[in-house]
Amino acid sequence: MLALHEEHIGYLVVDRAGEPHFPRGEVELIAAFASQAAIAIANARLYNSQIEQAWVSTALLQVAEATTQATEVSEVAQAVARLTPMLAGVDRCAVLLAEGDEFVINAFYSDKGAVPAAEPPLRFAPADWPQLQMVIETCEPLVISAPDLDDSMPADLRRLFSEVVILLPLLAKGQVQGLLAVGQEAGESPFNTQRVRLLSGIANQTAASCSINLSRKRRG
User: Fold this and answer.
1) Containing domain of residue 38, as a range?
2) How far is residue 204's CA from residue 196's CA, in Å, rounded to a whole number?
3) pLDDT tens for the 220 residues of the chain, in order
4) Dihedral of the CA atoms 217, 218, 219, 220 (nearest 10)?
5) Are residues 34 and 77 in the same domain?
């Protein structure tokens, strides 16, 4: 067994053909090798974790810089939609903001470039989109894969996305004020914990910047 500080890391399996058991000296050697292997694996994991943490922090800093420079909510949405595919490695990104009982697409960007805003803007009601209603109720990210996309996502929005979509709430004062929707092709890098954490950070920064701009607009 590979273990470090009583934490189980894995197993080292060895075989010695033609012998019913290992001599004591070899057992001690194998045990020492297993101990060194456990230390090396733990160090590699720590190193990778530190690299990923630095990557997330750097990406979120870029989003913060871009959104704090924006003076309008529409500029925040456009900046986030443009930066998210590049920073998170997704194919496309849409920013939807709440207007009354509906959610309106304020910006959309794909790996093929910016997409002109629809006229009139695309609007979606939670009652017509079960997954949106679920995100509003749980305030948690939701990953949707085909065929669920075809079954419930509104057709106008479905045309903008491909095989896998993750919906992240834009939370302000405990309320869902919008939605960050990102998508990619099936078979690409999965939405693992690290990527979801990055996307959640982007969503939080987006919500904060939009809230600040809306408050500034009301005061002005």
Assistant:
1) 1-69
2) 12
3) 455 555 666 666 666 666 667 666 665 666 666 666 666 665 565 556 556 666 677 888 888 888 888 888 899 999 999 999 888 888 899 999 999 889 999 999 987 766 655 666 788 898 888 889 999 999 999 988 877 776 777 888 888 887 788 999 999 888 899 999 998 877 666 777 788 888 999 999 998 888 888 777 776 5
4) 50
5) no
What stretch of H or E contains 196? helix 193-219
Q: Is the same domain home to 187 and 172?
A: yes
108 and 16 in a single domain? The answer is: no
In whole angstroms, give the CA distance from residue 160 to residue 81: 13
Whose CA is closest to 71, among 206, 219, 212?
212
